[in-house]
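Input (structure):
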């Protein structure tokens, strides 16, 4: 847990900005829903921007990081979960607490009010916590889809993976198709952690932990069937203090490294000295 207390005062000190590339080690499917189904198209298309290019919504990446950190911290248990939605068949449960040092609530935000726990008494809190972490939509680097790759794709930028669900009694096959961004594609990622007090700075280590967990998990749909393995590279972490925005002071590069592990080490070695230099 963090060093935050209910008396911690919040005022913008600066922002930690992590930029890099996310590589698809296997095909990636972040679904757009079935409302856009076209004749002859995939049953499950990927989400695309206004120019028809696949991208990874920041909400998908942010939600996956949150889920992995909740599991890693032992918070994905009934007593720590609340209902966002109780619609039958579409229940949504996330971690929420009223503890001022709860790093998940500090990173992802917390609204005041009454929420029903999955198990135990309802959570009734007046704590309002601004989210520190912002994750932006990750656009596709179109140059990462090479001419050789395009020769083997079903569309200009995507492939279609065919699957079969087999009935265990009749052995009848139920075919389905999944549109995916192919292995080798790269997306440009950008994450920003607002530092509203000195106690916020170590939260960036939790973000890096979540990204490392993701590298050994899966993003998007079909993860248990081989889709969604990603890795992060060409990373750069910078600090932009309040004076950067107020008077044009230069940003400070904390680390530029090829791996998340190297960025973690650089942050630990810095001992957050950039706060004291502000």
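Output (sequence):
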């Amino acid at each position: 847990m963090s060093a935050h207390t209910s008396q911690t005062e919040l005022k913008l000190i600066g922002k930690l900005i992590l930029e890099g590339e996310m590589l698809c080690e296997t095909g990636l499917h972040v679904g757009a829903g079935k409302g856009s189904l076209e004749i002859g198209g995939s049953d499950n298309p990927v989400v695309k921007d206004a120019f028809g290019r696949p991208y990874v919504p920041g909400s998908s990446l942010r939600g996956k990081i949150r889920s992995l950190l909740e599991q890693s911290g032992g918070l994905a248990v009934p007593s720590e979960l609340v209902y966002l939605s109780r619609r039958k068949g579409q229940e949504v449960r996330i971690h929420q607490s009223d503890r001022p040092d709860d790093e998940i609530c500090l990173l992802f935000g917390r609204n005041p009010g009454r929420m029903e726990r999955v198990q135990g008494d309802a959570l009734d809190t007046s704590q309002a916590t601004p989210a520190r972490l912002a994750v932006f939509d990750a656009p596709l680097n179109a140059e990462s889809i090479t001419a050789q790759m395009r020769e083997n794709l079903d569309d200009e930028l995507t492939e279609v993976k065919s699957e079969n669900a087999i009935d265990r009694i009749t052995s009848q096959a139920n075919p389905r198709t999944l549109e995916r961004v192919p292995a080798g594609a790269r997306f440009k990622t950008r994450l920003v952690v607002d530092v509203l007090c000195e106690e916020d700075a170590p939260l960036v280590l939790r973000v890096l932990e979540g990204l490392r967990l993701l590298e050994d998990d899966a993003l998007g749909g079909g993860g248990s069937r081989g889709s969604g393995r990603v890795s992060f590279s060409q990373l750069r972490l910078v600090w932009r203090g309040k004076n950067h925005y107020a008077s044009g002071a230069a940003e400070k590069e904390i680390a530029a490294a090829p791996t998340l592990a190297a960025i973690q080490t650089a942050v630990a070695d810095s001992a957050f000295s950039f706060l004291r230099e502000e």
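Notes: Helices lie at 58-72, 103-108, 147-150, 203-215, 242-246, 260-270, 273-277. The mean pLDDT is 92.
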